[in-house]
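Extended Data, panel c. Modelled sequence:
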Amino acid sequence: MFDYQVVCRRDDNGSYVAYVPAIEGCHAIGATPEQAQRELQNVFDMIAEEFADGGRQLPNDVQLTVVHGR
């Protein structure tokens, strides 16, 4: 997972969401940023295993641009 950009943000309900934008469905929720990221590692591992079992490669990472609005 270290080859991918990971986004972690606070959700409206106070929990934290961590996700890998390049991989559809690769997201996790936790009470803290650290917990969300630990859970994300588990999700990433499951997805990577599914890709490997299917003989497919994981997609390339994407470049994100963060824009802060007013």
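The chain has one helix and three strands. This feature is highlighted in the accompanying rendering.
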